[in-house]
Amino acid sequence: xxxxxxxxxxxxxxxxxxxxxxxxxxxxxxxxxxxxxxxxxxxxxxxxxxxxxxxxxxxxxxxxxxxxxxxxxxxxxxxxxxxxxxxxxxxxxxxxxxxxxxxxxxxxxxxxxxxxxxxxxxxxxxxxxxxxxxxxxxxxxxxxxxxxxxxxxxxxxxxxxxxxxxxxxxxxxxxxxxxxxxxxxxxxxxxxxxxxxxxxxxxxxxxxxxxxxxxxxxxxxxxxxxxxxxxxxxxxxxxxxxxxxxxxxxxxxxxxxxxxxxxxxxxxxxxxxxxxxxxxxxxxxxxxxxxxxxxxxxxxxxxxxxxxxxxxxxxxxxxxxxxxxxxxxxxxxxxxxxxxxxxxxxxxxxxxxxxxxxxxxxxxxxxxxxxxxxxxxxxxxxxxxxx
Length: 387
Known about the structure:
Layout: H1 2-9, H2 13-24, H3 37-42, H4 48-61, H5 65-85, H6 87-108, H7 117-125, H8 130-141, H9 143-150, H10 157-177, E1 182-185, H11 188-191, E2 198-203, H12 214-221, E3 224-234, H13 238-246, E4 253-261, E5 278-285, E6 304-306, H14 325-335, E7 341-344, H15 351-358, E8 362-367, H16 370-378, E9 382-383
Parallel strand pairs: 1-8, 1-9, 2-3, 2-7, 4-6, 7-8
Antiparallel strand pairs: 3-5, 4-5
């Protein structure tokens, strides 16, 4: 059949096969007379409803084939977005996308490689922008940092890149400051008498739903210098607040109760109480503590600090109770000087000690969770027992 058709028409067999396939995709009733065969070929693979709608728009708007190709790509992107938006497929789609992007990054080579030669030409053929080439290479180079988390849930590209950037910036800041955040797998009660006197204590103990940790805080406060200061985070629950107010603080003076307010709580509205979107920060001063440093225009000294909590959807949350870096930076700057010893007895993912080290302080933290310590190492902390 094709032999006769080739002889009669002068077209190649492949061209005729393609024409047959396109023709089979259209009933006569849906063919658009004022559009060319090429127009029909471009959208032939789309589902019938999308194909009919896009051809009607092309006929109405007078689109060229180039216009139609552009709209065809948009239609495909929208279909992918709809697929990914389905919760059942979201993790699956994100994991697949990160695997593909990392494979491309490994094929392109190190991030130091210039955009020339075989890798660049292949990227161009695949319609990958130079920016994406760099991103994919960066993802591949730092694969050990984020890849294990991909098994827990599908990560967006932005989440991965934010994690990489945060760790890189923390390491760069520590290097510039000449300090490194140190962390130890231990209970603070077992090591509090062995550490040097504390210049600044920043503690974020577990909520009372996990136990009463006021004895731990009391022991740590008694290790703070007479010239030192301390901040202790607590939930806004009355029972917890009352317990910390009544705790033995040694020579430290409970000077003020500060408030950390966050407006991205995402909680359901309760029926018999108000939504809790703040935590209390107990501020203590030693009897000979110096004045607050006042490093900025005064906003960092407000008793109520409004900074949103780290958001896992943006890739900047490593621990469910993690505090924002901006808030901890303010506390460290306000109440310590370069070279001072900063201690965090419940360091979690290490945000406090990373902040302190980046600001030139001697920073040490401890935690009883191996998983938390592992995260600290991932973020740039070193083993405090090795010093």
